Amino acid sequence: MSERPLIGVSTYLEAGTRWGVWELDAALLPAAYPRLVQRAGGLACMLPPDGPELAAAAVARLDGLVVAGGPDVDPVHYGADRDARTGPPAPARDAWELALIDAALASGTPLLGICRGMQLLNVALGGTLVQHMEGHAEVVGVFGTHPVKPVPGTRYASLVPEATSVPTYHHQCVSRLGRDLIPSAHAEDGTVEAVELPAEQGWVVGVQWHPEMGKDLRVMEGLVMAAS
Question: pTM surpassing 0.90?
Fold first, then answer.
């Protein structure tokens, strides 16, 4: 690859973060995300929450977009009442990332949603979420693993044709699929673990697990290749 494509990754915005003698608001992203982009051949840049009206201009400067994992999507975005087990809302991040997704879909910019990013992609396209499920985040603060099986004939299956064990940490998942989304991998319990849009609608994939916490580069390499 002669020139590395620029891959934007959405980030947290956290108040009162401490490092050294300082306690300040901070735009944060686990280093595993940019490292995964870099290992897959891309050039990573952070996209902290900003005005949603600026999302299209930001995406126009990117070759590809990653919507990262993070807090639960506010159920107001899919018309549901809040479950007691749903985490606190992150309104600025929800608004920014929904606008980024809309801009990427409108412009045909290759898009990968990771965990929350897959859930938000589903919501952006009119889908809904299960607000709490068991078995996919068994120990608080510890990534687990479980197998996922690709759906033959999908883009995901073309990247990862065999069943694999993936790093996982989530308690929410897709309920009703959003407009035009295709399930492209499942867990053993039937949970939709990957989604995508038909090829004619561009390179758009979401995975429920955390590829940045594993060694398999193939999904991110697919995004980087499409972004090239």
Answer: yes
